[in-house]
Design goal:
The structure holds two protein chains of two kinds. By secondary structure, chain A is of the alpha/beta class. Helices cover 57% and strands 13% of the residues of chain A. Chain A has two domains: 127 residues, Rossmann fold (3-Layer(aba) Sandwich); 63 residues, Orthogonal Bundle (Arc Repressor Mutant, subunit A). Chain A starts with 5 loop residues before the first strand and ends in a 5-residue tail after the last helix. The chains are: A alpha/beta, B alpha+beta.
Chain lengths: 205, 440
């Protein structure tokens, strides 16, 4: 996590786009503007921390469709949808796809500030979670084949004795591998480990 | 000799013979052998001998059956025509070359509040509204031996003081030396007709206006989008300017920014103003017929529907030359038809891939009309739909009233044009025609 936060602005109306850029820039944030959803998707490189401020009514891909496309591609970038006319259906779709909020045009600078702030902070949390996940994944990948076998059975909630029985090894061996798993992953107690494995490597459970 | 005389008439014949002289022929019917009757005309005289004693009759006769029958027919038909003329509700009048009435039927006499006999001898122009007398003279003056017909509409002062509107078709008469003899004219009262027409026109205008207002209602989403968009720009530029002005000192660079933003804010207010003027004009109750170029109306209609097309149409083509002849019509109503067709076209392309969402408006001269077509790349109209879509309350849209095309049709037809759907083509096309203005 490094560098200053970026606010991506997508709007097909030149004046609306420029004015949003001007305001965001005066808030001492870096603004990068695009005139269509397609243009944004073509040049988005996954830079973090960032958030996306997109208009909804655009020719071609709409704002909510852009949001849905990002989510379908597992991009967790925080998105604020702007609209000059909020219909219920649009609001529901945006929120369901995980938009931070819906800004109705025209909006005050405090409303924009709050929305961007919330988006960037969500993005930061999201990023932290993702980083944590990445770390645990890396650690899980460092386990040996036999340690992974033990982990799988432990995740099903079985005691050492039955693990030993199932894997046809001694209870002592199971205990050894178990402590080595805790050591390698750096996670304790067992409940938290199981939870992380379910998120990071569900196939091991 | 009397045997050939019809038995009923023998008595009369005897008397006639006794009273007759050469100068007073008498007519009698003679029975034919086959039982039918012939008519004969006789001129006879009594014969006297040297002492002056009546000695007999001398008569010369001829068969006049055809003549008698013809006269009878004539009398019958005259009676018939007389009663037709008298009973007609149409006004019939004849006058001589000076406009003096020589004959008028009862209907005409009634409008002058007198009997047919009393009217004879008076002037035909007496009751005409003073402002229309000149017009009547002019119309009556243009007739010739070759083209003796004229027609005119006149205001007429009724005996009651009311003004009535009459329509007249006249024919001039000439003698064999082409000398003008007078006029015969048939007229009828069209006061009520005109009044009804005006009422209908007013109703048509009202319903077109209501449909227009309803249309604006359906456009609310698009309109508020169109207005909120520049409002958002104004708010953003102003907020950004405020942030700069909160700084302790404003740099030269900031000043340049401020200048540019203020300029753009003004542009945005102009943008909103234009939208509002356009919508106000479109929402107006009615307008007069005027000469205008269909291209101008199409441009205006495209601007009014800009918001609807924003996301629905990717390419607009307009091939309406400004060189086309003008049309004479209620401009707002024609724009209303175009707005309706453009909106339908936009909505028809919702399922069409963005890149192919093309709509075109074409206008061209066909004969004495201008034909305007609005085409879209939607799924098109089937022959069956093409039949129904101009009916009220027929719609394929979930949120439509189904009155747009019905109103469009009544607007176009009231202007003497036609509207139709081009069907089974695989794309949507509606075209309408309007007569070319007489002034171009």
């Amino acid at each position: 996590m490094s560098g200053s936060p970026v606010v991506y602005i997508v709007d097909d109306d030149t004046d609306a786009r420029d004015s949003a850029c001007a305001l965001v820039s005066e808030m001492s944030l870096r603004a990068i503007a695009f005139s269509s959803a397609e243009e944004f998707l073509n040049s988005y490189d996954g830079y973090r921390p960032a958030c996306l401020l997109t208009d909804h009514h655009m020719l071609g891909m709409t704002g909510v469709e852009l949001l849905e496309t990002l989510r379908a591609n597992e991009v967790s970038l925080a998105v604020v949808v702007m609209t000059a006319f909020a219909e219920t259906e649009l609001t529901v779709r945006a929120i369901r796809s995980g938009a931070v909020t819906l800004l109705e045009k025209p909006f005050s600078n405090t409303a924009l500030w709050r929305a961007i702030h919330q988006a960037l902070s969500e993005d930061r949390h999201q990023f932290a979670d993702e980083a944590k996940l990445l770390l645990i994944r890396k650690r899980l990948d460092s386990l040996t084949e036999s340690e992974r076998e033990v982990l799988t059975v432990i995740c099903r909630g079985e005691p050492n004795k039955s693990v030993a029985l199932k894997l046809d090894v001694s209870v002592r061996t199971v205990e050894g591998r178990r402590s080595s798993i805790f050591e390698k992953t750096g996670v304790f107690p067992i409940a938290e480990l199981v939870q992380l494995v379910m998120i990071a490597r569900p196939e091991l459970c | 000799m009397f045997s050939v005389i019809h038995p009923d008439h023998r008595e009369r014949v005897m008397r006639a013979v006794q009273n007759s002289d050469v100068h007073r022929p008498f007519v009698l019917d003679v029975m034919r052998r086959d039982g039918s009757t012939d008519w004969s005309e006789w001129r006879g005289r009594s014969l006297f001998d040297a002492e002056g004693k009546h000695s007999g009759y001398q008569a010369v006769g001829r068969i006049v059956t055809d003549l008698v029958l013809a006269q009878r027919k004539l009398a019958e038909s005259e009676l018939q025509y007389r009663s037709v003329v008298e009973d007609l509700r149409e006004l019939i009048v004849r006058c001589d070359s000076l406009g003096v009435i020589t004959f008028a039927n009862a209907a005409y006499a009634r409008t002058r509040d007198c009997s047919p006999d009393e009217i004879v001898g008076r002037s035909v122009l007496e009751s005409v509204h003073p402002e229309d007398v000149e017009h009547a003279y002019q119309q009556m003056a243009v007739v010739t031996c070759e083209d003796p017909f004229c027609s005119l509409e006149l205001r007429v002062m009724r005996a009651s003081g009311d003004v009535a509107l009459q329509e007249w078709n006249g024919r001039a008469f000439y003698d064999e030396k082409r000398k003008f003899l007078g006029f015969q004219a048939v007229g009828h009262d069209i006061t009520e007709l005109r009044r009804t027409e005006a009422r209908l026109r007013e109703k048509d205008q009202q319903s077109a206006h209501l449909a227009r207002v309803a249309m604006l209602g359906e456009m609310v989403a698009g309109i508020s989008h169109e207005i909120n968009q520049p409002l958002a720009s104004i708010a953003n530029f102003s907020s950004a300017a405020e942030l700069i002005l909160e700084k302790p000192d404003v740099s030269v660079e900031d000043q340049v920014k401020l200048q540019s933003w203020v300029h753009r804010v003004l542009q945005q207010t102009e943008r909103i103003n234009t939208i509002i003027i356009r919508l106000r004009r479109f929402g107006r109750p009615s307008s007069q017929r005027e000469d205008f170029a269909i291209a101008d109306a199409a441009t205006e209609a495209l601007l009014v529907t800009e918001s609807a097309q924003r996301t629905a149409v990717s390419r607009r083509l307009m091939s309406c030359s400004h060189d086309l002849p003008l049309v004479n019509a209620d401009r707002i109503q024609i724009e209303q038809v175009l707005v309706n067709l453009i909106q339908n076209a936009s909505e028809a392309m919702q399922e069409t891939p963005t890149i192919s969402r093309q709509m075109s408006i074409d206008a061209d001269v066909v004969g004495s009309e201008i034909v305007v077509a609005v085409t879209d790349f939607g799924p098109g109209i089937t022959a069956e739909q093409g039949h129904d879509i101009f009916q009220s309350f027929v719609t394929s849209k979930s949120d439509g009233m189904g009155i747009g095309l019905a109103i469009s049709r009544s607007i176009i037809e009231s202007h003497g044009g036609k509207i139709r759907a081009i069907t089974d083509t695989g794309y949507g096309k509606i075209e309408f025609s309007l007569p070319i203005s007489e002034h171009t």
